[in-house]
Amino acid sequence: VTSLSAKFVVTNGDGGKIWSRPYSTKSTHVRTEKKGAVLSVVGKTTNAAGNVWYKLADGKWVYSGNVKEQLRVTYNALGGGSTPAVQTVLKGSSLKLSTIKPTKIGYTFQGWSTSSGSSTVSYQPATTYTFNKHTNLYAVWKKNSTLSVLPFPD
Fold first, then answer.
1. Running DSSP on this structure, what letter comes out for residue 65?
2. Of 47, 12, 52, 48, residue with least CA distance to 32
3. Nearest to 16 by CA among 50, 62, 60, 51
4. Nearest to residue 98, comparing CAs of 46, 135, 66?
5. Quick check: pTM over 0.90?
6. Which regions of the chain does DSSP assign to beta strands (E)?
7. What 3-state class would DSSP assign to 64?
8. 2: Cβ–Cβ under 8 A, 6 or more apart, which residues?
9. How far is Cα 115 from Cα 122, in angstroms, rounded to an integer?
């Protein structure tokens, strides 16, 4: 069993059957979780038939075909305010990013990047993207130009 720590969501319309062990002639059906239920996964294995199974925090098992990993998209305004809340999406699914644009005095928000030091925008607010891993998005800021005010001659 490979250890992992993740949240998975039941996606099967009939629910996710929970088993006493990765399915074999020795496993017994314990319960069924409804579609949309979030499960805490602590391990992963492949049974003799080649099927992937996930071990739940309570020691029971669920077949990988009935669940998808729940991913987090996290925003960091890098010193700005009005940071959007964390969003969740199922692995391989599309998500419309938050419409909230952070603010920072003396700067204009350009968009989001996956690197905190980047000046290149990779993601825009209110735009839909597909995610296959947990993603941290960092604000890309452009410093506003400053104008010098000179006194008007008499």
1. G
2. 12
3. 62
4. 135
5. no
6. 2-10, 16-19, 29-33, 38-46, 52-56, 61-63, 67-76, 87-90, 93-96, 107-113, 128-131, 135-143
7. helix
8. 43, 44, 45
9. 10
Cα(83)–Cα(145) distance, rounded to whole angstroms?
Answer: 24
C-alpha–C-alpha distance, residues 84 and 90, integer Å: 19
Residue 45 confidence (pLDDT)? 95
| Helix count and strand count (H, E) for the chain | 0, 12
What does the block give as tokens for 73?
Answer: 């998209």
Rounded distance between C-alpha atoms, residue 69 and residue 108, angstroms: 35
Residue 112 exposed, middle or buried by CB count within 10 Å (0-12, 13-18, 19+): buried
Which residues have C-beta within 8 Å of that of residue 43, sequence separation ≥ 6?
Answer: 1, 2, 3, 4, 54, 55
Residue 27 identity: S
A 10 A CB-CB count for 24 gives 11
Give tens-digit pLDDT for 51-88.
999 999 999 999 999 999 999 999 999 999 999 999 99
Tokens of 35: 């579609």
